[in-house]
Amino acid sequence: MSLTVIELFGMETDLGLHGQQYQWLTTMYASHPWIITLNLPWTDSSEILPNRWKVGLSLSIYMTGWGICLICISAVQNWSQLMALRALQGFFESNISPGFLLVTGMWYRTEEHANRSLFWQSSEGFFSIVCNLILYGIARHVEAVGGIAAWRCISLFLGSLTLCGAIACYFILGTPHEVRWLTEDEKIMATARTIANHVGEDTVGKKWSWPQVWEAFRDPQLYFSFVNSFLANIPNGGITTFSSLMYETFGFDEWESMLYGCPRNAVYVVVFLVVGLYTQKVRNQRMWVMIASCIIPFAGLLVMSLLPDTAEYKWIKWGMYMMTVVFSLSIFLGWSLIPSNVAGKTKTTVVSSMTLIAYCVGNMGGAQVFQTKDAPRYVSGTVACSVCFGLQALAILLWRFWYMYENRRRDRLAAESGLSEEERVQQGWELAQEDMTDMQNPNFRYSM
């Protein structure tokens, strides 16, 4: 959020950005995590770090680095310095979402993964509204009083806020075995809740398994997750980078753009909470919701792109752009399928890492889809994003069909084995404690 907001208040002019330099800031930000991930398992960085250190400590370290980078951005004098800091930001950001996924998988049952992931993700929309209003006030004050540039003040504020979050993270977050605010008995109880997941208990410290690596690359799940993440994040890279500027293309000024973006964030919060409650009440609906979250922005972006560039369509375009807010559901629900459906510590790390690579590469490409020469409407970029949503919906549908086929095959084999339901559950739990993967454990069933 920070770069798209501060760009509105003179950063581009102050630093003399031109051509595709603004887009390259997002590309550089997204490039670092997937390069790190390729070093597995020889590095403690990125995705593997939470598996060797305490999760809460790891996340707080990364958030601290992220906050320091934001504060330093307030002092940059040219594009090269900003590019270097954006690269560092990408490094520190790379562990945040995988870390929260790991925490979710350790604390909650399979049927709870989707709604818990959506609940904590909905906070992004809420704090975007709060921060946008605060940043609006900061920018207005700076404009009236003068002094340091508004975008530099905003960077200082966001960096300081991130450091406060890092401190809170250190004392609160972690797996059930790590946190300080549970007694030993409560830690055992918290771990016992997730026995039925058949993914084992705390995987921290378990050895790297090369057979699980080879299995991960033979598993269709890895490729479905990769394609879903890649296709979703091409639009994500473009829409996130140009979210504030998009309102200006409709005919709003920079101040209106900041305020009229708040309703979109409010819809984001409501949609995520509603879907979270729905997936909690009705099981195996995640992938249908993912498909819907691709079709709605597909239609919204397409209509927005094809409408004439006249003032009379300004609010219609605003409404069509509002429809795109749901696309994030396909990203986060897709991520929530990993702790639910991938068992084995090493295999989970590999699938998560490949999904993160797709996330980063998609964002890198998405920022470049919007070419400066296409301003102010960026029709080619918005149409390309719409096509990605259509292809993503098809990929998710095939993904769900594969899960349905595999579950039915396993049910048939279970019926032939003669084991009772209780025996099957007990056997599944025992195999999970041995760090067996979902393909090795015949009692594992995939959540959809």
From TrEMBL:
The chain crosses the membrane at residues 55-76, 120-139, 151-173, 258-278, 287-306, 318-338, 350-369, 381-403. GO terms for cellular component: membrane. It comes from the Eukaryota. It is a multi-pass membrane protein. Keywords: Membrane, Transmembrane, Transmembrane helix, Transport. Gene3D superfamilies: MFS general substrate transporter like domains. GO terms for molecular function: transmembrane transporter activity. Its main location: membrane. It is found in: Membrane. This is Major facilitator superfamily (MFS) profile domain-containing protein. It comes from Talaromyces atroroseus.
